[in-house]
Design a protein that fits this description.
This protein has about 425 residues and is of the alpha+beta class. About 25% of the residues lie in helices and about 30% in strands. The strands form six sheets. Strands 7-8-9-10-13-14 form a six-stranded mixed sheet, with helices on one face. A four-stranded mixed sheet has the order 3-2-1-15. It is elongated and about 75 Å long.
Amino acid sequence: MRVALVQQKATKDKSENLSRGIAAIRKAAAQGAQLVCFAELAFEPFYPQRPSDGGHLELAEPVPGPTTDALRTLAQELHIVIIPNLYERDGNAAYDTSPVIDADGRLLGAQRMVHIPDYDGFHEKTYYTPGNLGAPVFSTSAGRIGVAICYDRHYPETMRAFALGGADLVLVPQAGAVGEWPEGLYEAEMRVAAFQNGVFVALCNRVGEENVLQFAGESFICDPRGEVIARAPASEDHLLLCNIDLKETEKSLARTLFFPDRRPGLYAKWLKTKDAPDRLDEPGRDAKVRLREITEDAVHSILGLSLKMMPGQEKMVAPNAVSIAQAHFNEKAWFRGIYADDTPVGFVMLYADDEKSEYLLWRLMISGPHQGKGYGRRAMQDVIEHVRARPDAKELKASYVPIPGGPWPFYRSLGFEPTGEMEGDEVVIRLAL
């Protein structure tokens, strides 16, 4: 089977991007490709470089929709499997989505990115809803295929699920920036995944300079032995073509040794962890966010939010009961519940010393089911305005634990800057008022 990866830059002109993509498909088909894969958000700007301003849904399109309709017609004409990646809107939710179009033009289904990151340059939690389609393996005319969209490639569970589901090839549409990961890890991660799971892995990366990021290119394909068998250049548009024999998966070490010796009965106990709470449909992103005093009637609902933290969130924020107790016994504490419409979704706590004009963000928490809807940002804007109105207030300080997935990108987007100070293990930051 001949695979083609379309590594191309994207401009703000979506129709022009799509036209270049269609031209690349025709070129690939003319050179014998049976399957064409595109990078993440191949036909549009990479929106998450900056946090959403709330209008992101207007940027997305349905699936099926205009882009998939055009590509389905082309797939049927050229008898070629096409797997693009686009920004999908489904009702009031938006997804990072790879539709799977078979060589007869049928839309077999789609995969949505499951794990959503948020760090500097990749503010994806403000744009994407976590995928809800599982780990499907698509039986196409070119072979059995899984799709691990960008961030999903970091999760061994994703790659193993595709292999156990019968995939011979895993496609990885990606938007990877120059210098984003440690030297050598970019390829090594996928080589190991291919070797451990007995699959071909084809990673198609975005390329070109946009806003705050420069995308690296260097798309590549590795075989079930973990060896790179094709590689595209860095920093330029390129059509990468490679012949692969999917029968190699059957005789891989993973399929002949590793899988038969698996002991899945043990793994459930080993991997038993706290589940992330389900995302709630209500209140929605457009809910009115308000800060309210904690009353006797409301205190129980605020306390209950601590039971709905995301895994690992408890390492970054104290439980509500601790915060309420500290606020109660500290006369300089200013404590409010965060409400979206009439639903409690979190809390915020300040240390406010008007005599010294010292103001510190002591606590901020949005419960797990309500994250990614912009409530924390809107609450912080109200907090900033509250502090700005205090006598002689010149700055608001905060601190955070510098761990992967920590809140620094969030604070930075609000205008906070490093002070160069440490408070224990936390980095101290400031917002000039």
